[in-house]
From TrEMBL:
Residues 198-201 are annotated as: Aspartate. Keywords: Aminoacyl-tRNA synthetase, ATP-binding, Cytoplasm, Ligase, Nucleotide-binding, Protein biosynthesis. It holds the Pfam family GAD. This is Aspartate--tRNA ligase.
Length: 594
């Protein structure tokens, strides 16, 4: 027990009359009279009330500043006024000795420890070590530790070997900006911090490792979002040799639900098998490749139904309709919520309702009324339904319908079963797409996924027998409550298939060898079919904790500008350090203010 007999969360009525020694932080001191005061002593495990009853002890306690660390030796007694909200609320300690172990040298704290979550975010990040003293903040870090331990235990029990892969590696085009590290012994050359252990884990499969995993740090120089921390993040990285998509699904469907059910804010989680939704169907039906299946709303294609009603925004556009049943909210509610959708989607939302007499009223009803019977039949409408409609090019219409579903589903009572973790797999991603800037065929997602149908499918596309845009990849995303937890794939382990896949986007074998030499060469030595996935640990814990910001579950997070304002990172370095690395800093000149 280190320098204590008990923790501040441990003592109970059964400990009455014991002499104990406690250590911790002086959270609060309340002076009731000249010879009576109450200390709240806090450590990692909880709080205990210390009762000061003598003039001598009052002289010791009064000069001690809040948040100083102290040790208390005393006798446990039963409290006359118990506190049922506190684990140690049946007892208190009468001290015979109090010593200061570490003095807090400031009378004013940046914020009240137990209310730190109400403080300015900059202050919380600058004094994160104080923020973490708040039990409400600390519990997320404890949760993170417990979840990682549970994941590690489950993966080991499923026969996976934990292997750490290099942090200093070579730069490779993986979609985000690299963090570069200058190589002192190799002037002008740089290491890169890994965006993911992708190549290394595939090389482990070639090496003969059958099942690999690690809690992997990943580094990407990208902007922050609510569910994405800038700089670094962690993922449960895994790969399996001689494996298919079904093998990967079986592992995660066995590993994740118990963890979510045990540690989550909600105690319900999807059971295996998780629902599988093809990518194109997900975009059509849910307006997103990250559907939140806790919401029962879906989108219908109403292009053929409403394109000829004489409403100008519908002309020559894809039209999507979302039906909200049993709608009882006001016109003001509709308008306000539609405005929220429009801000998020960048597209206009229209509406009409079906009244108790099955008449179409409100919004754009005058354009829809002439086709009332057909509209009611095709959309399956009944009295009390609200119909939300959007139009635009296909991707914009789909995106807008997705925002409608998410926004109205969360706000209209009865359409979201919130208190659960609802998982699904998004499958059958397109292998290729037409690039917005280039106007030419490009990889849609991961270029190293195995094309469905293998080499024969690629050869058919090359011969013009099929459209390359119809080729799907053996790639999959794991989604939970509208949050993408992970992407994974059956890997393209055959050099011949890999080269052919790249040839369709105008890259030859030499390009593949130059960009990915280690992986290409390794695959030429007999690579096993393999597949894997890497659920994000940070996002997982964020969902389990019920937090909206990922910074709440990271011990020492950066701010939105990728700065650690507690340590001052990133920071300038000395000229001597730059000279050792053969680096010269050439900053753009600041423009003079007009």
């Amino acid at each position: 027990m280190q320098s204590r007999t008990h923790t501040c969360g441990q003592l109970r009525a059964s400990d009455v009359n014991k002499e104990v020694k406690l250590v911790g932080w002086l959270e609060n001191f309340r002076e009731v009279g000249s010879n009576l005061g109450f200390i709240v002593l806090r450590d990692f495990y909880g709080t205990t009330q210390i009762v000061v009853e003598t003039e001598e002890m009052m002289k010791v306690v009064k000069p001690i500043t809040k948040e100083s660390t102290i040790s208390v030796v005393g006798v446990v007694r039963e409290r006359s006024s118990k506190n049922p909200k506190q684990d140690t609320g049946d007892i208190e300690v009468v001290p015979s000795e109090i010593k200061v172990l570490g003095k807090c040298r400031y009378n004013e704290l940046p914020f009240e420890i137990n209310h730190s979550r109400n403080a300015d975010e900059t202050a919380r990040l600058r004094y994160r070590y104080l923020d973490l003293r708040n039990p409400e903040v600390k519990k997320n870090i404890v949760l993170r530790s417990n979840v990682i331990a549970a994941l590690r235990k489950a993966m080991t029990e499923h026969g996976f070997m934990e292997i750490t892969t290099p942090i200093l590696t070579a730069s490779s085009p993986e979609g985000a900006r690299d963090y570069l590290v200058p190589a002192r012994k190799h002037p002008g050359k740089f290491y890169a911090l890994p965006q993911a252990p992708q190549q290394f884990k595939q090389l482990l499969m070639v090496s003969g490792i059958d099942r690999y995993f690690q809690i992997a740090p990943c580094f990407r120089d990208e902007d922050a979002r609510g569910d994405r921390s800038p700089g670094e993040f962690y993922q449960l990285d895994m790969e399996m040799a001689f494996a298919s998509q079904e093998d990967v699904f079986a592992i995660l469907e066995d590993v994740l639900p118990p963890v979510f059910a045990k540690y989550g804010t909600y105690n319900r989680a999807s059971e295996a098998p998780f629902k599988r939704i093809p990518y194109l169907e997900s975009m059509e039906k849910y307006g997103s490749d990250k559907p939140d299946l806790r919401i029962d709303l879906t989108a219908d294609d109403a292009t053929e139904l409403l394109s000829d009603v004489g409403f100008e925004p519908f002309n020559d556009n894809v039209i999507k309709a979302v039906v909200v049943s049993d709608f009882k909210e006001s016109r003001k509610f509709i308008d306000k919520t539609c405005e929220e959708v429009e801000v998020q989607a960048g597209n206009k939302v229209y509406w009409f309702r079906v009244d108790d007499n099955l008449e179409i009223v409100g919004g754009i009803s005058k354009f829809v009324k002439p086709k009332k019977d057909e509209v009611i039949e095709k959309l399956g409408l009944k009295a009390g339904d609200l119909v939300l409609v959007c139009a635009g090019k296909k991707t914009l219409a789909q995106k807008t319908s997705g925002v409608i579903i998410k926004t109205f589903g969360a706000k209209v009572p009865g359409h979201m079963d919130k208190e659960q973790y609802s998982f699904c797999w998004i499958v059958d991603f397109p292998m290729y797409e037409i690039g917005e800037e280039s106007g030419e065929l490009e990889f849609c997602h991961n270029p190293f996924s195995m094309p469905s149908g293998g080499l024969e499918t690629l050869l058919k596309a090359e011969r013009g027998e099929i459209d390359p845009l119809t080729i799907t990849a053996d790639q999959y995303d794991l989604v939970c409550n509208g949050v993408e937890l992970s992407s994974g794939a059956v890997r393209n382990h055959d050099p011949e298939i890999m080269v052919k896949a790249f040839e369709l986007v105008r890259l030859c074998e030499d390009d593949v060898k130059a960009k990915f030499p280690a992986m290409y060469n390794a695959f030429c030595y007999g690579a096993p079919p393999h597949a894997g996935i890497a659920p994000g640990v940070d996002r997982m814990v964020m969902l389990l904790a019920g937090e909206d910001s990922i910074r709440e579950i990271i011990p020492f997070p950066m701010n939105k500008n990728a700065q650690d304002i507690m340590t001052g990172a990133p920071s300038e370095v000395s000229e001597h350090q730059l000279e050792e690395l053969h680096i010269k800093v050439d900053l753009p000149e600041e423009k003079e203010e007009q």
